[in-house]
Amino acid sequence: MKKSSGFLNMIPVLPSRNIAKDIEWHKKYTGFEPVFGDDMYAGLKRDHLYLHLQWHAETEEDPLLGGSVIKLFVKDIKPVFEEFVKRGTIKEEKLRKHTDWGTHEFGFYDLNKNAIFVVQDT
């Protein structure tokens, strides 16, 4: 039997051009609320999930690469999907049901081109 590594959870850290602006975007479009932070680094929370934002200067020494991807797994995608449609985060046609890989899911991009997917395993 393999011994547990002791990992407890994972918190994605997404690059940001403007922490305050991104916090407001997440509050409006994803329902994540700020729990700590300043203009360089912030933590947001929704239910038992955490998301962190880290400012980058978008210079050669400190690039803002974008292209990060996170997947938020849910028990029932329907109420989350309906909420995000109501928030204006996505359009109704974005829900993909019964994917070839066994999920229902939808996705969108934040202000820094990070992909955020909400996924229900079927």
User: What series of H and E elements makes up the topology?
Assistant: EHEEEEHEE
Tally of separate domains: 1
Main sheet: strand order: 1-4-3-2
Mean pLDDT: 87
What does this entry look like structurally?
- It is globular and about 40 Å long.
- With 122 residues, it is of the alpha/beta class.
- It is 18% helix and 34% strand.
- Strand 2 and strand 3 (41-46) form a beta hairpin.
- The protein contains two helices and seven strands.
- The strands form two sheets. The chain has a four-stranded mixed sheet with strand order 1-4-3-2, covered by helices on one side. A three-stranded mixed sheet has the order 5-7-6, covered by helices on one side.
- The protein has helices spanning 19-29, 77-87; strands spanning 13-16, 33-37, 41-46, 49-55, 69-73, 103-109, 115-121.
- It has a single domain (13-121), classed as 2,3-Dihydroxybiphenyl 1,2-Dioxygenase, domain 1, CATH 3.10.180.10.
